[in-house]
Design goal:
CATH architecture: Alpha-Beta Barrel
Largest sheet: 8 strands, parallel, barrel
Length: about 325
């Protein structure tokens, strides 16, 4: 189906607006009805554009028909500036499948492959997507960490500013994910002293002025959710995210999309664990899942207002 039939938009106009007004469009990953509902409610209540991000494994978990049925049921209007995005598509075929389902944006992630292979695969996806007015994101540089099947790497490789112009021109992509020190998962830094490589970001911004840049692995890992999980039976230690101040600084330097996944996972788990622990007699999923939804909603609102600066941008 055509994504416009669902009321969705691609990312081209919203990224252009984000760059000109110095804010980032939040890309929140979702995994089921509860997480989707919380994210969309937060975006609507704050009047923020939003990118609904779906990994290949989340798509497989929900199923294509159920996922698109939930999107249809949201009654989205183009004026709400909501995009549906395939996160870390691992192949040309996975991107084509998402486009045919009705996704308005796809990411082809060939960042772990040789440079020329990355260029060729990214260009192949971009050429196909353009026929449907679908936005394409690619990645240059490699993030460490584990969050999903396609985001599993022990090594990191910073983006080389000398490569970005050639890569963008050769691929004809619409946005570029870069590696400047973020990582996937809940363990992003070994110490609180670590900083993102703003020197690399500055050079890339100079090479690609006004071009949409993306930060993956940029969850802030709120300590309140980590503490709540541990208090109510979980076991997560030494989790560190990217400080809000560093993310806000990056937004002022052409970062116009920030991906958030781990924060939502932690928020949902914390709320559900607390509900089940404090009300052991309860076996109604609607009640304990609502606690998780509430946490995701509140965290999305917080990050939209205080990190993304995307409140009231539609």
């Amino acid at each position: 189906m055509d994504y416009k039939d669902f009321g969705l938009v691609n990312t081209k106009d919203i990224f252009s607006d984000a760059i000109s007004k110095h804010y980032a469009v939040p890309a929140f990953n979702f995994y089921n009805m509860e997480t989707l509902s919380a994210i969309v409610s937060a975006a609507r209540d704050t009047k923020s554009p939003v990118i609904l991000a779906v990994s290949e494994s989340a798509l497989e978990y929900m199923g294509s028909n159920l996922l698109m049925g939930m999107i249809w049921g949201l009654n989205i209007k183009p004026s709400e500036k909501i995009a549906l995005h395939l996160d870390h598509g691992g192949s040309f075929e996975s991107c084509v499948n998402a486009i045919k389902l009705g996704f308005s944006s796809v990411m082809i992630d060939a960042s772990k492959k040789p440079f020329n292979t990355n260029v060729n695969l990214s260009r192949q996806v971009a050429d196909f997507a353009q026929q449907f007015d679908v936005s394409v994101e690619a990645e240059l540089g490699t993030l460490s960490g584990i969050e999903d099947e396609n985001t599993n790497s022990k090594d990191s490789n910073y983006t080389d500013p000398n490569d970005v112009v050639n890569f963008v021109n050769a691929t004809n992509i619409d946005s570029l994910a870069i590696a400047i020190g973020t990582s996937h998962g809940a363990y992003k830094r070994k110490s609180d002293k670590e900083e993102l490589r703003f020197d690399i970001l500055e050079k890339i911004s100079q090479e690609l002025p006004e071009f949409p840049l993306v930060l993956h692995g940029a969850s802030s890992i709120p300590k309140k959710f980590v503490n709540m999980i541990n208090e109510y039976g979980g076991r997560i230690s030494d989790a560190r995210g990217i400080p809000a101040e560093q993310l806000k600084r990056a937004v002022k330097m052409n970062i116009c999309k920030i991906n958030v996944d781990s924060d939502s996972r932690l928020a949902f788990t914390a709320g559900t664990r607390k509900s089940l622990f404090t009300e052991p007699e309860n076996f109604n999923p609607r009640e304990f899942l609502t606690s998780g939804m509430k946490n995701i909603y509140e965290n999305c609102v917080e990050e939209i207002k205080n990190i993304m600066n995307s409140e009231n941008k539609i």
